[in-house]
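Appendix B, Record 12. Input sequence as logged:
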Amino acid sequence: MQSWRAGRRRDRVLNSNLNSPPWVGTPVAGEAVDRLLYASRSCVQGPVFKEMHRIRDHALQRNMADDVYAALSYQAGWFMEWMEGPSAGIQAVMRRLECDPRHRDLRVVHHGRGPRRLPEPWSMAFRQDHEDPGDFERRVLALSESAGRQRLEPASVWRRLSMPLQGSGASGRVESDLYQRVMVCSARGTASFELVRWLGQVHRCKVTSQRLVGAEARVRDVATDYVDLDGSPGAMLRRVVAMARNGLHIGLFQAFLSDYSHLVLLLCGDSKHDVDLIRILVSACSRLSHRPVLLGLGRPGCDHAALREVARNGGLVYLDCDVSGTADAKALWAAAEPALDFSRAASSG
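Logged structural output:
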């Protein structure tokens, strides 16, 4: 078995993310488009998520006619939408939005031009949290004032609003992207979510949940949880995100793939499920110039060589690690953390 330690020099060369904090890459450059992100107060009466599904079905027809890709989020009584497309298309969508009675107080947070980052016409997220609408509004206003001055990308604006840092050490870092982001996904089962919940309990940190919806019927509603782990004083924070396997197909998730340092894969030992997971990620990362490292955690006997070959053929670095004994959350994290700590130390050193 080739451990992550044995392969680390080779992987430094193959993947620049290990030495490029804050692991914010960009997709392969394409045609420049208008990129606009706004927030508005919801006026929806009744179940908002159900109404968002109706918005989705309508937007897939109208927005695609204008060549506009979009991601819509709801939290704390507010909608937030990120749109990319030709200037005329963005303007057409905004004219329709101004007449939509389902929201009010529309405020543009970001508007500029750059490469298209959303890979599918429609995605949406529903954050399950108890943030006060007034607090969210204050964050919108503060970010509106600073986004242009800091030259933030729309992905950074979206992340700061929809997934703000949590935890006791986060208050002074809310306006920074300087923290490590790690995704955990199970080849089968819900072990990734169990791991994030366990991390929240052990570190006494809040676990935040979201529901994601994509354009395809097969991924209309999937879950994702995240927890922010405080490090030692002065150390970089680490965000650990559990993603359901079906969520890997959703464009909104793929738009942030280049922001992760590692994708931790909880392997099941069934070659079909494990290889399929690698292939999904190879496809999702194919458009990226900065690609996360795959860290495969499996029981002894897992065919890491086959998985490494699939990853390598797709241009991804694969590090393997065997988990002995009971593969519970504690054992999985004990196996993964040294590799994550090494990359974080290398990037800050």
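The two ends are 28 Å apart (CA to CA).
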